[in-house]
């Protein structure tokens, strides 16, 4: 029984062919495309408003050099939100519950920000490893600690997204199983548990959106240190 709870996180396959590629490509098909009309419909207008607001909020602390990343950040944000939201539907697979996929997003983007900092302003980038005013005996220790914290950043990005989505999916499945078990024995308790399940599902919708935003926001903060 305990193993079945984790079966939902196994990458599905059909005739030996992994279907995770379809799960990753599907969100791009669902996005509405702009039309050639003078006036857009409500869905495209809402999408445009959301992207503009998010872009303004995300690029506000960045310098002009960091604005080149706007398209990449917005695309990644919309992509992660769509994948996370689709994963809440029944009989679906959430690719972002796989640590390998999240690390595939986190490591190259984090490494790109570090390379940009080392290329454009190496003194400032290396200066982050040693805070100003550090006592001389603590300099070697602090450099080691800051270097470790620098390399932990992509791991924290991937693990945070994976852990939050995995915990939410497991909790939903556990409470849903409790509802089905309690329904024939204690209907009143089952109804109360179903109410908790509904509220938890709403919370998971918010978590799916917030975690995608936090992922991109932290990348923008790493970029802010290096541009």
In terms of per-residue confidence, which ranges show pLDDT below 50 for 5 or more consecutive residues?
none
- The H-and-E topology, N to C, reads as HEEHHHHHHH
Percentage of residues assigned to helices? over 70%
Q: Please, what is the average pLDDT?
A: 84
Give the CA-CA distance, first to last residue.
51 Å
Biggest sheet: strands, sense, closure?
2 strands, antiparallel
What's the number of helices?
A: 8
- Structure classification: mainly alpha
GO molecular function: proton-transporting ATP synthase activity, rotational mechanism
Pfam family, one: ATP-synt_A
Catalytic activity: H(+)(in) = H(+)(out)
Membrane topology: Multi-pass membrane protein
Note down, in words, how this protein is organized:
The protein is an all-alpha fold and 227 residues long. It has one domain. The chain has eight helices and two strands. The chain has a two-stranded antiparallel sheet with strand order 1-2. A hairpin with a 2-residue loop joins strand 1 (13-14) and strand 2 (17-18).
Question: Concise description?
Answer:
The protein has helices spanning 2-6, 20-30, 42-59, 70-86, 99-120, 122-127, 139-182, 187-224, and strands spanning 13-14, 17-18.
What would the keywords be for this entry?
single chain, 227 residues, mainly alpha, 71% helix
List the helices and strands and how they pair.
Layout lengths: L1 H5 L6 E2 L2 E2 L1 H11 L11 H18 L10 H17 L12 H22 L1 H6 L11 H44 L4 H38 L3
Antiparallel strand pairs: 1-2
Helix pairs in contact: 2-4, 3-4, 4-8, 5-7, 5-8, 7-8
């Amino acid at each position: 029984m305990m193993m079945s709870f984790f079966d939902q996180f196994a990458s599905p396959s059909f005739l030996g062919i992994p279907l995770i590629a379809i799960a990753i490509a599907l969100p791009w098909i669902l996005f509405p495309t702009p039309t050639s009309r003078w006036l857009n419909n409500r869905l495209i207008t809402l999408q445009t408003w959301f992207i503009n607001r998010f872009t303004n909020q995300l690029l506000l602390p960045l310098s002009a050099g960091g604005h080149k990343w706007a398209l990449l950040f917005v695309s990644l944000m919309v992509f992660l939100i769509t994948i996370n939201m689709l994963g809440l539907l029944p009989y679906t697979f959430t690719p972002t519950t796989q640590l390998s996929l999240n690390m595939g997003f986190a490591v190259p983007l984090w490494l790109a920000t570090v390379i940009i900092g080392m290329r454009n302003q190496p003194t400032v980038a290396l200066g982050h490893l040693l805070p100003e005013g550090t006592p001389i005996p603590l300099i070697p220790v602090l450099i080691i600690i800051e270097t470790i914290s620098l390399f932990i950043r992509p791991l924290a990005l991937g693990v945070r997204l994976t852990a939050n989505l995995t915990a939410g999916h497991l909790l939903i499945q556990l409470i849903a199983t409790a509802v089905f078990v309690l329904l024939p024995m204690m209907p009143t308790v089952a109804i109360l548990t179903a109410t908790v399940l509904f509220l938890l599902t709403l919370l998971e919708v918010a978590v799916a959106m917030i975690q995608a935003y936090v992922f991109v926001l932290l990348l923008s903060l790493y970029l802010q240190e290096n541009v």
